[in-house]
Design goal:
The chain is of the alpha/beta class. Helices cover 47% and strands 11% of the residues. The chain has a four-stranded parallel beta sheet with strand order 2-1-7-8. The mean pLDDT is 96. The protein binds zinc ion. The site of zinc ion (ZN) has 3 residues, from loops.
Length: 371
Protein backbone atom coordinates (compact mmCIF):
# COMPACT_ATOMS: atom_id res chain seq x y z
CA UNK A 1 0.00 0.00 0.00
CA UNK A 2 1.28 3.46 -0.84
CA UNK A 3 0.86 6.55 1.34
CA UNK A 4 1.90 10.14 0.60
CA UNK A 5 1.52 12.80 3.30
CA UNK A 6 2.30 16.46 2.64
CA UNK A 7 5.14 17.40 4.97
CA UNK A 8 6.27 20.66 6.52
CA UNK A 9 7.67 23.88 5.15
CA UNK A 10 10.70 24.11 7.44
CA UNK A 11 10.71 27.67 8.73
CA UNK A 12 9.24 27.43 12.22
CA UNK A 13 9.70 24.37 14.39
CA UNK A 14 6.84 21.94 14.57
CA UNK A 15 3.62 22.74 16.41
CA UNK A 16 0.81 20.51 17.64
CA UNK A 17 -1.12 20.82 14.37
CA UNK A 18 1.73 19.13 12.48
CA UNK A 19 2.26 16.63 15.29
CA UNK A 20 -1.44 15.69 15.18
CA UNK A 21 -1.40 14.99 11.43
CA UNK A 22 1.77 12.92 11.48
CA UNK A 23 0.76 11.00 14.65
CA UNK A 24 -2.59 10.05 13.08
CA UNK A 25 -0.87 8.71 9.96
CA UNK A 26 1.60 6.83 12.16
CA UNK A 27 -1.33 5.04 13.86
CA UNK A 28 -2.72 4.20 10.41
CA UNK A 29 0.63 2.80 9.21
CA UNK A 30 1.22 0.78 12.38
CA UNK A 31 -2.33 -0.59 12.36
CA UNK A 32 -2.07 -1.65 8.69
CA UNK A 33 1.36 -3.19 9.18
CA UNK A 34 0.27 -5.05 12.34
CA UNK A 35 -2.38 -6.60 10.08
CA UNK A 36 0.14 -7.71 7.46
CA UNK A 37 -0.13 -4.81 4.97
CA UNK A 38 3.24 -3.31 4.11
CA UNK A 39 3.00 0.48 3.72
CA UNK A 40 5.41 2.47 1.55
CA UNK A 41 5.34 5.95 3.06
CA UNK A 42 6.61 9.21 1.54
CA UNK A 43 6.55 12.56 3.35
CA UNK A 44 8.12 15.55 1.63
CA UNK A 45 9.93 18.64 2.89
CA UNK A 46 8.82 21.84 1.14
CA UNK A 47 12.09 23.76 1.28
CA UNK A 48 11.13 25.99 -1.68
CA UNK A 49 8.19 28.11 -0.55
CA UNK A 50 7.23 31.76 -0.04
CA UNK A 51 6.86 31.68 3.78
CA UNK A 52 10.31 30.10 4.12
CA UNK A 53 11.94 32.80 1.97
CA UNK A 54 10.05 35.54 3.81
CA UNK A 55 11.25 34.24 7.17
CA UNK A 56 14.84 33.94 5.90
CA UNK A 57 14.64 37.53 4.64
CA UNK A 58 13.20 38.78 7.95
CA UNK A 59 15.87 37.00 10.01
CA UNK A 60 18.72 37.88 7.58
CA UNK A 61 19.70 34.23 7.28
CA UNK A 62 20.38 32.05 4.23
CA UNK A 63 17.21 30.10 3.27
CA UNK A 64 19.19 26.82 3.14
CA UNK A 65 20.49 27.32 6.66
CA UNK A 66 16.97 28.03 7.93
CA UNK A 67 15.52 25.02 6.08
CA UNK A 68 18.26 22.68 7.36
CA UNK A 69 17.88 23.86 10.93
CA UNK A 70 14.09 23.59 10.99
CA UNK A 71 14.11 20.23 9.17
CA UNK A 72 16.34 18.90 11.98
CA UNK A 73 13.88 20.23 14.59
CA UNK A 74 10.99 18.55 12.75
CA UNK A 75 12.79 15.19 12.56
CA UNK A 76 13.79 15.42 16.24
CA UNK A 77 10.16 16.10 17.27
CA UNK A 78 8.82 13.25 15.16
CA UNK A 79 11.41 10.81 16.57
CA UNK A 80 10.49 11.87 20.12
CA UNK A 81 6.80 11.27 19.38
CA UNK A 82 7.65 7.71 18.36
CA UNK A 83 6.83 7.99 14.65
CA UNK A 84 8.07 5.45 12.18
CA UNK A 85 10.34 7.40 9.77
CA UNK A 86 8.98 7.65 6.20
CA UNK A 87 10.62 5.40 3.57
CA UNK A 88 11.50 8.48 1.53
CA UNK A 89 11.73 12.13 2.65
CA UNK A 90 12.28 14.05 -0.61
CA UNK A 91 13.13 17.75 -0.56
CA UNK A 92 11.80 20.01 -3.26
CA UNK A 93 15.25 21.54 -3.89
CA UNK A 94 16.51 18.06 -4.90
CA UNK A 95 13.62 17.46 -7.31
CA UNK A 96 13.95 20.43 -9.68
CA UNK A 97 14.88 18.35 -12.76
CA UNK A 98 11.80 16.18 -12.37
CA UNK A 99 9.61 19.23 -11.66
CA UNK A 100 10.84 20.89 -14.88
CA UNK A 101 10.19 17.70 -16.87
CA UNK A 102 6.59 17.60 -15.57
CA UNK A 103 6.14 21.33 -16.31
CA UNK A 104 7.40 20.82 -19.88
CA UNK A 105 5.07 17.88 -20.37
CA UNK A 106 2.05 19.87 -19.18
CA UNK A 107 3.10 22.77 -21.43
CA UNK A 108 3.55 20.50 -24.47
CA UNK A 109 0.20 18.80 -23.96
CA UNK A 110 -1.70 22.10 -23.71
CA UNK A 111 -2.46 21.94 -19.98
CA UNK A 112 -0.15 24.88 -19.26
CA UNK A 113 0.67 28.21 -20.91
CA UNK A 114 3.49 30.68 -20.54
CA UNK A 115 3.15 34.40 -19.86
CA UNK A 116 5.08 36.01 -16.97
CA UNK A 117 5.25 32.49 -15.51
CA UNK A 118 4.16 29.02 -16.61
CA UNK A 119 0.58 28.53 -15.38
CA UNK A 120 -1.58 25.44 -15.19
CA UNK A 121 -4.71 26.05 -17.28
CA UNK A 122 -7.54 24.98 -14.98
CA UNK A 123 -10.02 25.08 -17.91
CA UNK A 124 -8.31 22.01 -19.41
CA UNK A 125 -9.16 19.91 -16.36
CA UNK A 126 -12.87 19.23 -15.94
CA UNK A 127 -13.84 18.81 -12.31
CA UNK A 128 -11.49 21.33 -10.73
CA UNK A 129 -13.16 22.05 -7.39
CA UNK A 130 -14.75 18.63 -7.01
CA UNK A 131 -12.28 17.32 -4.42
CA UNK A 132 -12.92 20.28 -2.11
CA UNK A 133 -16.65 20.56 -3.06
CA UNK A 134 -16.18 24.26 -3.67
CA UNK A 135 -17.88 26.53 -6.17
CA UNK A 136 -15.80 28.86 -8.31
CA UNK A 137 -16.76 31.75 -6.04
CA UNK A 138 -15.74 29.86 -2.92
CA UNK A 139 -12.38 28.89 -4.47
CA UNK A 140 -11.70 32.51 -5.43
CA UNK A 141 -12.56 33.68 -1.90
CA UNK A 142 -10.13 31.21 -0.35
CA UNK A 143 -7.35 32.22 -2.78
CA UNK A 144 -7.94 35.88 -1.95
CA UNK A 145 -7.92 35.11 1.77
CA UNK A 146 -4.54 33.36 1.38
CA UNK A 147 -3.15 36.13 -0.82
CA UNK A 148 -2.73 33.70 -3.74
CA UNK A 149 -5.22 35.28 -6.13
CA UNK A 150 -2.81 37.17 -8.42
CA UNK A 151 -4.08 39.05 -11.46
CA UNK A 152 -5.48 38.35 -14.90
CA UNK A 153 -3.93 39.94 -17.98
CA UNK A 154 -1.84 39.39 -21.10
CA UNK A 155 1.33 39.25 -18.94
CA UNK A 156 -0.24 37.27 -16.12
CA UNK A 157 -2.91 34.60 -15.63
CA UNK A 158 -5.71 33.94 -18.13
CA UNK A 159 -8.02 32.92 -15.31
CA UNK A 160 -7.80 33.71 -11.60
CA UNK A 161 -7.97 29.99 -10.71
CA UNK A 162 -4.86 29.15 -12.79
CA UNK A 163 -1.76 28.61 -10.68
CA UNK A 164 1.99 28.78 -11.42
CA UNK A 165 4.05 25.68 -12.17
CA UNK A 166 7.26 27.65 -12.79
CA UNK A 167 7.92 31.29 -11.96
CA UNK A 168 10.67 33.85 -11.80
CA UNK A 169 12.60 34.08 -8.52
CA UNK A 170 13.11 37.28 -6.56
CA UNK A 171 16.75 38.41 -6.29
CA UNK A 172 17.34 36.76 -2.89
CA UNK A 173 15.53 33.55 -3.76
CA UNK A 174 17.11 30.45 -5.30
CA UNK A 175 16.82 30.14 -9.09
CA UNK A 176 17.45 27.29 -11.47
CA UNK A 177 18.05 27.58 -15.23
CA UNK A 178 15.29 26.27 -17.48
CA UNK A 179 13.91 26.69 -20.98
CA UNK A 180 11.16 28.81 -19.38
CA UNK A 181 13.76 31.16 -17.97
CA UNK A 182 15.58 31.14 -14.65
CA UNK A 183 13.23 30.56 -11.80
CA UNK A 184 11.71 28.19 -9.29
CA UNK A 185 8.69 25.91 -9.02
CA UNK A 186 5.23 26.99 -7.90
CA UNK A 187 3.81 25.36 -4.80
CA UNK A 188 1.65 22.46 -6.00
CA UNK A 189 3.71 20.77 -8.72
CA UNK A 190 6.27 19.44 -6.23
CA UNK A 191 3.86 17.04 -4.56
CA UNK A 192 2.51 15.64 -7.84
CA UNK A 193 6.06 15.00 -9.00
CA UNK A 194 7.36 13.49 -5.75
CA UNK A 195 4.27 11.35 -5.09
CA UNK A 196 4.28 9.89 -8.60
CA UNK A 197 8.05 9.43 -8.81
CA UNK A 198 8.37 7.55 -5.52
CA UNK A 199 4.98 5.80 -5.40
CA UNK A 200 3.74 5.48 -9.00
CA UNK A 201 1.08 7.25 -11.09
CA UNK A 202 -1.75 6.23 -8.76
CA UNK A 203 -1.40 6.14 -5.00
CA UNK A 204 -3.59 4.45 -2.42
CA UNK A 205 -3.83 7.12 0.27
CA UNK A 206 -2.95 10.81 0.09
CA UNK A 207 -2.97 12.65 3.38
CA UNK A 208 -2.46 16.06 4.87
CA UNK A 209 -4.08 18.75 6.98
CA UNK A 210 -7.58 19.85 5.94
CA UNK A 211 -6.33 23.35 5.13
CA UNK A 212 -4.55 21.75 2.13
CA UNK A 213 -7.69 20.39 0.41
CA UNK A 214 -8.04 23.62 -1.53
CA UNK A 215 -5.94 24.82 -3.24
CA UNK A 216 -3.01 22.43 -2.77
CA UNK A 217 -4.61 19.01 -3.17
CA UNK A 218 -7.20 20.19 -5.67
CA UNK A 219 -4.32 21.45 -7.85
CA UNK A 220 -2.17 18.38 -7.24
CA UNK A 221 -4.97 16.14 -8.43
CA UNK A 222 -5.54 18.26 -11.56
CA UNK A 223 -1.84 18.28 -12.48
CA UNK A 224 -1.25 14.60 -11.79
CA UNK A 225 -4.25 13.33 -13.73
CA UNK A 226 -3.44 15.70 -16.60
CA UNK A 227 0.14 14.37 -16.65
CA UNK A 228 -0.70 10.67 -16.70
CA UNK A 229 -4.28 10.48 -17.99
CA UNK A 230 -4.87 8.01 -15.14
CA UNK A 231 -7.76 8.55 -12.74
CA UNK A 232 -7.91 8.71 -9.84
CA UNK A 233 -4.49 10.03 -8.88
CA UNK A 234 -5.25 9.15 -5.24
CA UNK A 235 -7.73 6.37 -4.42
CA UNK A 236 -8.39 7.84 -0.96
CA UNK A 237 -7.82 11.31 0.42
CA UNK A 238 -7.49 11.57 4.20
CA UNK A 239 -7.50 15.00 5.80
CA UNK A 240 -6.85 15.80 9.42
CA UNK A 241 -8.71 18.49 11.36
CA UNK A 242 -7.23 21.71 12.65
CA UNK A 243 -5.82 22.01 16.16
CA UNK A 244 -6.99 25.16 17.90
CA UNK A 245 -5.63 26.98 20.91
CA UNK A 246 -7.67 29.42 22.96
CA UNK A 247 -10.48 29.14 20.43
CA UNK A 248 -8.52 29.84 17.24
CA UNK A 249 -6.74 27.64 14.72
CA UNK A 250 -3.05 27.48 15.62
CA UNK A 251 -1.20 29.61 13.11
CA UNK A 252 1.99 31.52 12.80
CA UNK A 253 0.14 34.67 11.81
CA UNK A 254 -1.96 34.59 14.99
CA UNK A 255 1.04 33.62 17.11
CA UNK A 256 -0.88 31.02 19.16
CA UNK A 257 1.32 28.03 18.35
CA UNK A 258 1.91 25.34 20.94
CA UNK A 259 5.18 23.74 19.94
CA UNK A 260 5.98 20.07 20.33
CA UNK A 261 9.11 20.99 22.29
CA UNK A 262 7.01 22.95 24.83
CA UNK A 263 4.76 19.95 25.48
CA UNK A 264 7.74 17.60 25.80
CA UNK A 265 9.11 19.80 28.59
CA UNK A 266 5.92 19.23 30.60
CA UNK A 267 4.90 15.66 29.77
CA UNK A 268 6.44 12.33 28.71
CA UNK A 269 6.45 11.82 24.93
CA UNK A 270 3.94 8.95 25.27
CA UNK A 271 1.45 11.29 26.98
CA UNK A 272 1.76 13.95 24.25
CA UNK A 273 1.34 11.33 21.57
CA UNK A 274 -1.59 9.58 23.31
CA UNK A 275 -3.26 12.95 23.92
CA UNK A 276 -2.97 13.80 20.20
CA UNK A 277 -4.42 10.51 18.98
CA UNK A 278 -7.27 10.57 21.50
CA UNK A 279 -8.93 13.01 19.03
CA UNK A 280 -10.86 11.95 15.94
CA UNK A 281 -8.70 12.67 12.90
CA UNK A 282 -11.34 14.51 10.85
CA UNK A 283 -12.45 16.90 13.57
CA UNK A 284 -11.06 20.20 14.75
CA UNK A 285 -10.22 20.26 18.44
CA UNK A 286 -8.81 22.55 21.11
CA UNK A 287 -5.42 21.94 22.65
CA UNK A 288 -5.77 22.01 26.45
CA UNK A 289 -2.89 21.78 28.95
CA UNK A 290 -5.22 20.30 31.62
CA UNK A 291 -6.25 17.48 29.29
CA UNK A 292 -2.59 16.77 28.54
CA UNK A 293 -1.98 16.56 32.31
CA UNK A 294 -4.83 14.03 32.64
CA UNK A 295 -3.30 11.93 29.84
CA UNK A 296 0.04 12.10 31.68
CA UNK A 297 -1.62 10.50 34.74
CA UNK A 298 -3.05 7.77 32.48
CA UNK A 299 0.41 7.13 31.01
CA UNK A 300 1.87 6.88 34.55
CA UNK A 301 -0.67 4.16 35.39
CA UNK A 302 0.06 2.31 32.12
CA UNK A 303 3.79 2.50 32.82
CA UNK A 304 3.30 1.15 36.34
CA UNK A 305 1.18 -1.78 35.10
CA UNK A 306 3.82 -2.71 32.51
CA UNK A 307 6.65 -2.43 35.07
CA UNK A 308 4.73 -4.62 37.60
CA UNK A 309 4.00 -7.13 34.86
CA UNK A 310 7.64 -7.33 33.76
CA UNK A 311 8.68 -8.01 37.37
CA UNK A 312 5.97 -10.64 38.00
CA UNK A 313 5.94 -12.43 34.70
CA UNK A 314 9.29 -14.26 34.66
CA UNK A 315 8.86 -16.88 31.90
CA UNK A 316 5.11 -16.84 31.48
CA UNK A 317 3.79 -15.40 28.24
CA UNK A 318 0.16 -14.43 28.48
CA UNK A 319 -1.63 -13.51 25.22
CA UNK A 320 -3.73 -10.33 25.20
CA UNK A 321 -7.42 -10.70 26.07
CA UNK A 322 -9.34 -11.53 22.91
CA UNK A 323 -12.39 -9.36 23.54
CA UNK A 324 -10.22 -6.32 24.25
CA UNK A 325 -8.24 -6.75 21.04
CA UNK A 326 -11.38 -7.36 18.98
CA UNK A 327 -12.80 -4.06 20.22
CA UNK A 328 -9.49 -2.23 19.64
CA UNK A 329 -9.21 -3.53 16.06
CA UNK A 330 -12.88 -2.81 15.35
CA UNK A 331 -12.33 0.79 16.48
CA UNK A 332 -9.38 1.41 14.17
CA UNK A 333 -11.07 -0.45 11.29
CA UNK A 334 -13.96 2.00 11.55
CA UNK A 335 -12.44 5.01 9.76
CA UNK A 336 -9.55 5.04 12.23
CA UNK A 337 -11.65 5.76 15.32
CA UNK A 338 -8.71 6.46 17.63
CA UNK A 339 -10.79 7.88 20.55
CA UNK A 340 -12.63 4.54 20.71
CA UNK A 341 -9.29 2.69 20.51
CA UNK A 342 -8.04 4.76 23.47
CA UNK A 343 -11.18 3.72 25.40
CA UNK A 344 -10.24 0.07 24.66
CA UNK A 345 -6.77 0.84 26.05
CA UNK A 346 -8.35 2.19 29.25
CA UNK A 347 -10.46 -0.98 29.52
CA UNK A 348 -7.30 -3.09 29.17
CA UNK A 349 -5.72 -1.05 31.98
CA UNK A 350 -8.76 -1.57 34.24
CA UNK A 351 -8.58 -5.31 33.57
CA UNK A 352 -4.83 -5.22 34.23
CA UNK A 353 -4.19 -6.97 30.91
CA UNK A 354 -0.57 -5.96 30.35
CA UNK A 355 -0.23 -7.90 27.09
CA UNK A 356 -3.22 -6.07 25.58
CA UNK A 357 -1.89 -2.72 26.83
CA UNK A 358 1.46 -3.44 25.16
CA UNK A 359 -0.14 -4.45 21.86
CA UNK A 360 -2.36 -1.35 21.80
CA UNK A 361 0.42 1.05 22.77
CA UNK A 362 2.61 -0.34 19.98
CA UNK A 363 0.05 1.04 17.54
CA UNK A 364 -1.17 4.15 19.37
CA UNK A 365 2.14 5.62 20.52
CA UNK A 366 4.75 3.72 18.47
CA UNK A 367 8.16 4.08 20.06
CA UNK A 368 7.37 7.16 22.21
CA UNK A 369 8.86 6.94 25.69
CA UNK A 370 6.48 6.31 28.62
CA UNK A 371 8.64 8.18 31.12
ZN1 LIG B 1 1.86 18.63 -0.75
Amino acid sequence: MTLYVCGVTPYDSGHMGHAFTFSIFDVLIRFLEANGVRVKYVQNITDIDDPLFERARRDCIDWRELADRETKVHIRDMMALGLRPPDVVPRVSDEITRILAATSKLHRSGHAYRTDAVYFDVDTYPGYGRLSHRSRRSMLLKLRHEDLLGTVGPDAKQDLLDFPLWRASRPDEPAWPSKFGEGRPGWHIECSVMAMHYLGPQIDIHGGGRDLVFSHHESERAQSESLTGKKPFARTWMHTGMVKYEGHKMSKSRGNLVKVSQTLQRAPAAAVRLYLVSHRYRRDWDFDWMALARTTRLVDRLDKLLADDTRARRDRRVPPGRALMVEFNAALSDDLDTPRAVRALRAALRQRDAAAVRAMLDILIGTASLT
